[in-house]
Amino acid sequence: MTTAPTAQTEPTAPAALREAAARLDGDDSLAPLRERFLLPPDVIYLDGNSLGPLPAAVPPALADAVTRQWGTDLIASWNGNGWWEAPLRVGDAIGALIGAAPGQTVAGDSTSVQLFTALSAAAALRPDRSLLVTDPGHFPTDRYLADAVARHRGLTVRRVPPARLPRFLAAEGDRVAVVSYSPVDFRTGELYDMEGLTRAAHRAGALALWDLCHAAGALPLRLDALGVDLAVGCGYKFLSGGPGAPAYLYVARRHHASLETPLTGWNGHADPFGLGRDYLPAPGISRARIGTPPVLSLIALEAALSAFDGVDLARVRAKSLSLTAFFLRCAGELLKPWGFGSVTPAEPDRRGSHVALRHPHARGLAHALAERRVIVDMRAPDLLRFGVNALYTTHHDLLTAALHLRDIVREGAYAPEPPAAGPVT
Description:
13 helices, transferase, 13 strands, 4-stranded antiparallel β-sheet, alpha/beta
């Protein structure tokens, strides 16, 4: 996270890059979708892979939820305005974006809670197996919670990079309960072979659990078709549901009858208002509900998802690849002479929806870019991440970002170690 931007003039660009950006943006059939977001004027926002911008549909939806539903209808809104069904309704809307048929996805609680639920439930489905396998480069939450679930259930965590998983499973697969990975490396943007890794887990008799935080909404996902067992994801990155937006949990229908969740909250009871003494799980994915849902946040997320109405995710993916390929070209021509190196694969089928550049002064450069109204983020110790979202990012945005970055380094117009603006980077 960086300081508030101030206005800057646009830098000059090589003619070939300027013409390429204009041509690619001129041919972009998704360009009108940018109007579905309330982006600040003159800001180039390349941090939507951390927090998506505000969709235009959200403010009126929240205003209605607060002033009419809560303010006027009060507690009757649990029935009259569909508050009670919101976790399942929003879950199905997300399910449509991740290749899940209705009735398999529930929204609510945080990613950490959903991940704890998924890991624990997966382990319970394979009670005779002692290993939980995860990526050593996984996002910290995934690594921390794998350790926590292992302690809770008496399992052993094995950290295996995705490329080495098939060989590991060939040797020790009969001991593996669940394999937990992400389709996209949160640091480098590398896209892993979700289908192949899921198949490898199943050959070993293990379950496949995927963290979709950096994939859902950015590329087509086919959870049902690939036979994925469980998946989790957040609502605030490419889905643009707002800061701290509810996360979601997917569980394949074939596991519902035997699904045991570790947090048996009253919302997951078969008769929650019967107030029975003992817990009896609800049928289907409803048993994965836990506590009272965060209604206002769910309403904001539901409105945000309308930005995908009528959108073909295959076209989103095609534009995303065009954007990241163009930025890699810009980085090679404009930034490589100034000490930047890409850690994002050049091959399209190995690339997610952000590009990461390595530079020893990444933090200072992110602050300097923000002062020129270009918002990116950095990941310690030395990565600058440039996130693209095909619903609103343009090739011109990426060219301008690269030009500003080139000029900042060329002019030495940054502090290598800027003072922290706050605890969030």
